[in-house]
UniProtKB/TrEMBL annotation:
Superkingdom of origin: Bacteria
Pfam families the UniProt entry points to: M20_dimer, Peptidase_M20
Subcellular location: Cytoplasm
Stated name of the protein: Acetylornithine deacetylase
One GO CC term on file: cytoplasm
Major location category of this protein: cytoplasm
Keyword Cytoplasm: yes
Family: Belongs to the peptidase M20A family. ArgE subfamily.
Native source species: Bradyrhizobium pachyrhizi
Keywords linked to the UniProt accession: Amino-acid biosynthesis, Arginine biosynthesis, Cobalt, Cytoplasm, Hydrolase, Metal-binding, Zinc
SUPFAM superfamilies on file: Bacterial exopeptidase dimerisation domain, Zn-dependent exopeptidases
Enzyme class: hydrolase
Location of the Peptidase M20 dimerisation domain: 175-287
UniProt GO molecular function: acetylornithine deacetylase activity; metal ion binding
Amino acid sequence: MQNQRSDRIRKLLADLVVFDTVSDRSNLPLIDYIERYLASLGLTGQRIVDETGQKSSLWVTIGPEDKAGLVLSGHTDVVPVVGQDWSHNPFELVERDRRLYGRGTTDMKGFVAVCLAMVPEMLAADLKTPINLAISYDEEIGCVGVRPMLREVARKPIRPLGCFVGEPTQMQVIIGHKGKHGVRATFRGLARHSSITPDGVNAIEYAADLITEIRRRAALLAADAEQGSLYDVPHSTLLTSIVHGGAALNIVPDSCVVEFECRGIGITESREVTDAIIAWAKAEIEPDMRKRHPECGIDFEEILDYPALDTAADAAIVTLAKQFAGRNDHAKVAFGTEASLFVSMADVPSVVVGPGSIAQAHTPDEFVEMSQLEACGAFVARLIAHCAK
């Protein structure tokens, strides 16, 4: 049984890695593949297609459809490989020493492959409690694709009992993660020849004031670290990550774009921190820019937003996750996942638990250990046994 399961996982992961599902491309060929696989087992799923018609998530129910079930959730998109030094084609699975290499093997096609590989065992088990597969898109660019699916889930007459999001945690049960709010600030200055600098409005220099304030507030957040926190970085973080501006050395820059983010421990803290910065900039920076020229100022736009996850350690979904994982520890992580949206949008209790290490995610020669995929298969097998009672 174990060898057959491992072979199914390996074969399905090899098939999934072949699809180039970087977030700026369609994931429909991969969804087509999954649907064909499920159809061969007598199953159909519900597609939730985006506005462009080029992306789709998939909701699948195995077992009775009139009962509340447990969800296994994973995304299909991967991060780009451009500029990375891979030793082989990143969209071809390569196995060496029981390590499976390829883009998305850890983040997170390995988990999706395990879930699909376990479907025959789900069908053979005569489930009394259904198992749902929630397969999404565009997680890597702000948990975009899961949202339309969760709106559908929230409208269903029966709400799922809980959700396991299979991001790479080395099969440790994760009960919390930070939220994130990202903002783009576009400074509109006034260009002039640099010999008459006082006649211009220097967008970069005003942007520097914002960057300095972001750094000051980041230091305050770091000084307010949570004692005894489960987080490896025990405080909310704030940083400027991208700056673009200027055209030539002898031109007063009329434009500068600054992107910054907060990763907050509190459920809504990320947005609260960035909203406060925006209010400060509008009050302290923008009036001086407009005083020098009325058409100058700052435009702010949201880049991405998702809340923090904070599931109680004694919640039923945590107890189940530990039972299925065969371990009794739990932790919190700094990276974000779709789990918090299952909670905030559909009121579905959620934890994060999946194969592989986050240290491998997004890297060249990304890999997942076969032993991790097998441990995940054992997790799902225990889930199946629980749902068959």
